[in-house]
Structures are given as structure tokens and as C-alpha cells.
UniProtKB/TrEMBL annotation:
GO terms for molecular function: ATP binding; dephospho-CoA kinase activity. ATP binds at residues 11-16. GO terms for biological process: coenzyme A biosynthetic process. This is Dephospho-CoA kinase. It comes from Modestobacter marinus. The gene is coaE. The lineage of its organism: Bacteria, Bacillati, Actinomycetota, Actinomycetes, Geodermatophilales. Catalyzes the phosphorylation of the 3'-hydroxyl group of dephosphocoenzyme A to form coenzyme A.
Length: 198
């Protein structure tokens, strides 16, 4: 098995690259989806959050009130760290389970937005970083419905491209049209993934 950690700033094109890798046969594990599943109704994750942050972070029917929780942790790094300590270990455990369940010889890609921030680079055989000029990311995020101010604030709250480059085995640039990204994914696959699976 080859384990690839895929990361990049918000709106850089991680999901797009993950989809291109899936087309080439990779098994994709999406950390954002696992994070949502980790706090779904009935989970120990949601119970731990309710205990830590109080009933104000739950909706009337007992699900997570994401907006209320975001308001609590947004300006409070200690609260953010307490939330991360609940969610991240659960996401990692589930990601490891899914990777272990993939057929032998699989190429497993984990899309981990905060790979650098959470110090996970060493968990992967290859770290693939997607980089896109911040203003292009803002424009693409605005097209997706985010305000420009929110997009810039989220970009500023994450690791820098330089920090991501420092742990990257390969960097893909996504400033151009989708075909250029697809060509880079093809090259990554033939130069790095195929040799690693032999
Ligand atoms: P997030 O961090 O929010 O999960 P992401 O890094 O997964 O985002 P994508 O969702 O792949 O990024 O891309 C962000 C947006 O930009 C999407 O709407 C996507 O369709 C669009 N996009 C990605 N690459 C390109 C491109 N080369 N040209 C134009 N639009 C693109």
C-alpha cells in the first residue's frame, strides 16, 4: 500500500485533485467527511463536545449546532484546542481503519486540510501539496458562496504555503485551467505513485 497525504490551503483544489486521483484508481479518505461523522448524533464525539462546551452547542433535536460551536472556538485558541483534542484523534483512528480495510496494493489518498497544522506529515509515504495563489482561491471560494472577507480570514488562520512546501514531496500548482492540474496529477502518478507500487 502507498499512503499519500494530500493537503493545501482552503480552496486550493484538494477535492479536485482527490477526484482526479480517484479516477486513476486511488482510494480516497476525506478528513472533512470523517470529522463530520465523528460528531454525528449518537457518537461519543458529540457527547464529549456537549460535556466540554455545554448544551448551547446542540440544536433542539440534539445535533451539533456548528454555528454556535464556531462562535465559541473562533476567538478562543484554548477552546479550539479542546475541540481539536476531541475530534482529531477520532478522525485519525477512523482514517487508519479505512486505510487498513483497503485491498492490498491500494493507493490510499487522505485529504487532510490541516496536515501541516496537526503535524501528520510523517504518517504518509508521500505528501502531496496543492498550491494556488491566495487571490485566485478567494475568487473561487466566492464563486462557491463564501464572502471574500470570510475567505481571507480562513486563509490567514491556516499554515502558510511556505510551511506546507517544507513538508511536501511534490507540489502541484493550481493557478491555471483544470486541464493543467490534471496533467500534473498524471505526471505525479507516473513519476511517484506507480514506482512506489512496484
Ligand atoms: P476546501 O479547502 O474548501 O475543501 P479544496 O482545497 O478542496 O477546498 P476544491 O473544492 O477542489 O478545493 O476547489 C475550490 C473551488 O475551486 C471549487 O469550486 C473548484 O471547483 C474550483 N476549482 C478548483 N480548481 C480549479 C481550476 N483549476 N480552475 C477553476 N476552478 C477550480
Amino acid at each position: 500500500m502507498v499512503k499519500i497525504g494530500l493537503t493545501g490551503g482552503i480552496g486550493s483544489g484538494k477535492s479536485t485533485v482527490a477526484a482526479l486521483l480517484a479516477e486513476r484508481g486511488a482510494v480516497v479518505v476525506d478528513a472533512d467527511r470523517l470529522a463530520r461523522e465523528a460528531v454525528a448524533p449518537g457518537t461519543t464525539g458529540l457527547a464529549a463536545i456537549a460535556e466540554e462546551f455545554g448544551p448551547g452547542v446542540l440544536t433542539g433535536d440534539g445535533a451539533l449546532d456548528r454555528a454556535a460551536l464556531a462562535a465559541v472556538v473562533f476567538a478562543d485558541p484554548a477552546a479550539r484546542a479542546r475541540l481539536d483534542a476531541i475530534v482529531h484523534p477520532r478522525v485519525r483512528a477512523r482514517a487508519a481503519e479505512l486505510a487498513a480495510a483497503a485491498p492490498p496494493g491500494s493507493v490510499v489518498v487522505q485529504d487532510v486540510p490541516l496536515l501541516v497544522e496537526t503535524g501528520q506529515a510523517a504518517s504518509f509515504d508521500l505528501v502531496l501539496v496543492v498550491q494556488t495563489d491566495p487571490e485566485t482561491r478567494v475568487a473561487r471560494l466566492v464563486d462557491r458562496g463564501l464572502s471574500a472577507a470570510d475567505a481571507r480570514a480562513r486563509i490567514a488562520s491556516q499554515a502558510t504555503d511556505e510551511q506546507r512546501r517544507a513538508v511536501a514531496d511534490v507540489v502541484l500548482r493550481n493557478d491555471g485551467p483544470p486541464e493543467e492540474l490534471a496533467a500534473q496529477v498524471d505526471r505525479f502518478w507516473s513519476e511517484h505513485v506507480e514506482p512506489a507500487t512496484c
